[in-house]
Amino acid sequence: MIKRVIMAVTLVVSTIATAQIEAELFGDQNQPGNRLHTQIVEVMETGADASQAISEVIEAAVTKEARILNGEGKSAVAFNLDLSQNFYSEMISSNSLIDVVKVLSEEYSEKAVEIISLGAALYPDYVQDIYDGAVLAGVMASEDILVALLQAGADPSAVSDATAAAGNQAAGLVNTPPLGTGVGAGGTGGGDTTASTN
After folding, report:
1. 156 three-state secondary structure
2. What is the pTM for the complete model shown?
3. Distances in Å between the alpha carbon of 74 and those of 66, 67, 77, 96, 194?
């Protein structure tokens, strides 16, 4: 009887701990990336370092019998295991999809489309974060980012360039037109930009 009570209490504590981890990690349990992140954290809590836990969980997740990732997720992760491991190394560090996409796109600009596809496969309900991170990285035009997201299967109605533009403006990344554009400025608007002394 006491053994059963101890087992039941252990199960409840384990369930509560897992629920707490999931609540603290980016996304929700419907996102393949969140489930993968949760497993990585659980392996780390057994004493493994982050690199070892990431490698172990990712390698197990892409096996034929694994069910943590759907087909798109498995393909995206398996396509470039090193990039996938870097993705989760950054995710453990920042717990922010925007930051992960931005940092990795800046560091591996030639793989920006891969990073966008990986993010979309792992966090399909968070494509706006992926778009915003890619725009902030500044290595691709916003139209190309949108095309990459669409090719990765993202819903186009889930993406708006308004938040990315606002983020760019706050970061000083948006080029503002020179004073006078549209009212003269070298023939662009039909008038003189100098103040009248009349």
Report:
1. helix
2. 0.71
3. 9, 9, 5, 21, 61
